Each structure stands twice: as structure tokens, then as C-alpha cells.
Structure prediction request, 254 residues.
Amino acid sequence: MRKVMIAGNWKMNKTFSEGVELALALNEELKDGTGDVEVVVCPPAVDLKGVAEVIEQNDAPFGLGAQNVYWEEKGAFTGETAPDMLTAIGAGYCIIGHSERRGYFGETDEDINKKAKALMAHGIVPISCCGEPLEIREAGTHVEFVVNQIKADTADLVIDDPAKYVIAYEPIWAIGTGKTATADDAQEVCGAIRETLVEIFGAETAAEIRVLYGGSANEKNIADLVAKPDVDGALVGGASLKAPQFAEMVKNAQ
Ligand code: PGA
Prediction:
């Protein structure tokens, strides 16, 4: 049985002290537990240690994720972060392949594939993003587009524990625009992703991999989204930046 995941992507928001404040507020909101929902927050890199301490000191009911990683172990890669640096400060998850990283920083499917392998070798759960731009959606080739991304992003990937590999389908036209894909739109693509995972990894493994939806997901639309058979939660940007709203979303996902 797949556990619903609600993961907050803070993007480039919150200074160190603001991040600590948000994590403390979220802990307060969620102190009665998160039911059967796995909750993760992904702050900017410089905030990770502060949020890790909030989680540890309060036994907070959410996990910690990074927003990016590099696949090499160490060395002359100025500005990058290695997987074991994330492990060392308590980050158990990492977003990879977000459309903003693909679009603004030229990240390719090949990079994303290497990042997934490096993370999994260190026991960090990748939250691997895919999704089509508006022109592909309008051309009606979005399913094929996303399926090809999935195939490239998972090339030669060995998944021992399918609960520890997560995909997030985020149609680019729905990110930060207030235009959520309908729950049926999300299901169409998440269902196609599941079928692709069956082809690649077999039915048993594919049945355990979480496929999240992302793109203007919030406390109002989350229940409809997770009611769909192949939508296993959400990767949340804007609605993860306010503790009461994010906590309400967690509640409504239960
Ligand atoms: P949004 O962002 O919820 O603000 O649309 C989602 C994401 O980009 O992960």
C-alpha cells in the first residue's frame, strides 16, 4: 500500500531564521500527528541544518529534503553539494529534475538519472520531477512527453526499495500559476507513468512507487487529487510556505 506523501518545496524562499520559524510553526500545527501521511519539507540548502535541528529537538512529524544534489562524492565542483553532505545533516529526501532546474539551469534527463543513482546509493529518497510545458500540452502529446522523461530519468536504475523512490508529475503550466490540472488531468498522466513503471520495473515494484502531483496544489484541491488511483500525494510550492495552510493540506490528504 502506497503511503500518501505531501512534500513542501520552499524553493528560494526563507532565510535561515525564517526557515527555522516556519519549521517550528509547522511542528506546532502538526503536533497531533500526520495520520497516515508522510510529510517532508525541502528548504533552501543553507536552511537545511537549522530545520534539521528543529526536527530533531522536537521530534517533529516531518522529514527533511534538499532541493538539489550533485552526483560526485567530493572534489572540485564549486557550489555543489554531495549526497553524503546531505545525509550528514539529516536530509533523507532530495528533489531532482524540477522544471525550474531543467529550465533555468539546463539540467538534463541524463543529469537527473545520475543524481537519482547517487542519492539512492546513499539511502536518500529522490523526488524526481517530470512534466510538460504548455505547448506540449496544447499539442496533445503530453503523455508521450512525460513517458519519455520517465524512461530517460530511470535508465538502468536499480530500485531495491520502491517506497524510497518518488516521482512528481508537475505540468509546467500549472506551477505557481494558480492553474491546477484537474484531478482527471493529473490521473491521466500519473496513470501513464505507473504503466511505464510497470514496463520498466515490473508490476510489483511499480505498485509501490509513489507518484505525486505538483502545480498549484493546495488545501482545497488536495482531497480530489489524492482520491485518484495513481495520485499518491503532492509536491507543493506556494502552499508550503505558510504553516497553517500546509498543515491543513496534510489533514485534507488523509
Ligand atoms: P506550486 O509549485 O505549488 O507553487 O505551483 C509546485 C512546485 O513547483 O513544486
Q: What stands out?
A: The two ends are 14 Å apart (CA to CA). The chain has a mean pLDDT of 97. The chain is about 40% helix and 15% strand.
